[in-house]
């Protein structure tokens, strides 16, 4: 059963904050048209495309982390009958918190997506995927606080020079 548009949007809003990562949230997303396999955990505050939820597929045994967004369309203006992309998350995938999954992406079986990653292209199977770890960019000799201004902060900033490896 697929819900009418208004009810689908309401179900998405409820699923966003409802309890029940293995039960209520996946059930509400299924009602909206998202294809979801068995044993799927959807954390709270997960956004799944509001306009084209049927273009999102999530396989068995997946975990979708807190505050992740899964987007299957990029356009503005009036609603179009179809989206311009699909998102396929195959089985046994772990998506960390605060990730953004963009249209036309396939995350293959067994992949692990690092927290905070923007996934804009396909992810191979059994791959740990994400940006490099954060590192020191420089030394802040002047704190950036209400008592200092941005110009003083910038003048006191000593940027780290990254050396190229040969």
Query: What is the topology, as strand order, of the major beta sheet?
Result: 2-5-8-11-13
Topology order in helix (H) and strand (E) letters: HHEEEEEEEEEEEEEEHE
Enumerate the spans where pLDDT stays under 50 for 5 or more consecutive residues.
none
**Outline:** elongated
Query: Would you count the extended β strands for me?
Result: 15
In whole angstroms, the N-to-C terminal distance is 59 Å
Q: Oligomer, anyone?
A: single chain
CA-based gyration radius = 20 Å
**Share in β-strands:** 15-25%
Instruction: Find the structural class using helix and strand composition.
Output: alpha/beta
User: Roughly what is the average pLDDT, rounded to an integer?
Assistant: 92
Number of helices: 3
> How would you characterize the largest beta sheet?
5 strands, parallel
Can you give the helix content as a percent range?
10-25%
Can you tell me about this structure?
The structure is a single chain. With 166 residues, the chain is α/β, with parallel strands linked by helices. The protein has helices at residues 5-17, 24-32, 150-156; strands spanning 35-36, 41-42, 47-48, 56-58, 63-64, 69-70, 87-89, 94-95, 100-101, 105-107, 112-113, 118-119, 128-129, 138-140, 157-159. The strands form four sheets. A five-stranded parallel β-sheet has the order 2-5-8-11-13, with no helix packed on it. Strands 1-4-7-10 form a four-stranded parallel β-sheet, covered by helices on one side. α1 (5-17) packs antiparallel against α2 (24-32). It is elongated. The termini are far apart. The mean pLDDT is 92.
């Amino acid at each position: 059963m697929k819900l009418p548009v208004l009810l689908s949007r309401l179900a998405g809003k409820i699923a966003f904050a409802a309890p029940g990562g293995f039960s209520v949230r996946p059930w509400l997303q299924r009602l909206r048209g998202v294809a979801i396999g068995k044993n799927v955990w959807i954390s709270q505050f997960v956004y799944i495309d509001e306009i084209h939820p049927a273009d999102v597929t999530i396989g068995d045994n997946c975990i979708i982390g807190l505050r992740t967004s899964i987007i299957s369309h990029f356009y503005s203006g009036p609603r179009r009958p179809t989206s311009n992309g699909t998102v396929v998350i195959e089985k046994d995938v772990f998506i960390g918190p605060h990730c953004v999954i963009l249209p036309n992406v396939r995350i293959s079986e067994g992949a692990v997506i690092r927290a905070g990653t923007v996934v804009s292209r396909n992810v191979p199977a059994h791959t740990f995927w994400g940006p490099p770890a954060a590192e020191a960019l420089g030394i802040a000799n002047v704190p950036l606080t209400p008592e200092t201004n941005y110009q003083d902060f910038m003048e006191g900033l000593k940027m780290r020079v990254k050396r190229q490896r040969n």
